Amino acid sequence: DPPWARRHPHGPAVMRRLDQLLANLGYCSRREARTWIEDGRVTVGGKNADDAGRKAAEADVRVDGEPLDHPAGLLLLLHKPTGLVCSHEEREGPNVYSLLPERWRRRHPVVTSVGRLDKDTSGLLLLTDQSALVHRLTSPRHKVPKVYRATVDRDLSPDLGPVFASGTWTLPGETDPCAPAVLELVGPREARVTLTEGRYHQVRRMFAVHGATVLTLHRERFGDLSLDALPPGRWRELPLDTFDRPAAAGRDS
Ligand code: URA
Which 3 state secondary structure label does DSSP give 23? Predict the structure, then answer.
């Protein structure tokens, strides 16, 4: 298995306070949860709950007769459109989380992106509330391959491939050389680049060093995952154990 496909155990079912459970899953505030419970909207094991402080296992709880919304966590594959940022900071502009259902945007832990794509970059972006997974998939140690398709403003030299692949050249202002990257020319001004790390504006800066400005940038793959026919702005759910399985899902290469 590649190192990033290593197994990690999911814990046993936890008992949590009802008000905390509802608040953390984005239904309402803890205060509102008390009202919901008084109003008879919440059941545990089929019986009306009457105490916001009572502890229950997620699987036993219903709200308005419905099972809880993804109590174990979320892992989403999003086709990020250009024009949205991956930051939660409102002042950085419209963000990718605005594409998600309201309730998911109120969850704790928060749903966050696995690494970031620039505002002007489109393509495959993972979103999750599993911080251990974010850490594992973004750690340079784990070398998850990410494939980008770039168009640039001038013809690319075939000499660029060996430079990107060398593992010895350094971006301006940095001291660590870039890990070996694969460059495949798909046209005179179009290339596919495979990176195993994710430095700030990395693809744009790699081309800029060689005098080329990136005009469009799109991420086609993340590990074994690809967008397939998913349109921009849409997401699909992935099983939480996607990266625990030997052939890290997708399997469409
Ligand atoms: N490299 C970039 O320059 N931008 C991205 O969004 C991703 C990789």
Answer: helix
pLDDT digits (tens, 9 = 90+) for 126-177: 999 999 999 999 988 889 999 999 999 999 999 999 999 999 999 999 999 9
Q: Residue 172 contacts by C-beta under 8 Å, 6 or more apart in sequence? A: 205, 209
Please give the DSSP secondary-structure letter assigned to residue 162: H
Amino acid at 28: C
Q: What is the mean pLDDT of residues 234-239?
A: 97
- Extended strands (E) in 129-189: 146-152, 182-187
Radius of gyration of the chain (CA): 22
Q: Is the CB of 201 under 6 A from ligand 1?
A: yes
Instruction: Give the strand pairing for 182-187 and 190-195.
Output: antiparallel
Beta bridge partners of 95: 85
Q: Whose CA is nearest to atom 7 of ligand 1?
A: 117
Binding site membership of 117 for ligand 1 (Cβ less than 6 Å) = yes
Which residues of the chain form beta strands (DSSP E)? 15-17, 42-44, 47-48, 55-57, 61-63, 66-67, 75-80, 112-113, 121-128, 146-152, 182-187, 190-195, 214-222, 225-226, 235-237
Of the candidates 2, 1, 34, which has an alpha carbon nearest to the alpha carbon of residue 17?
34
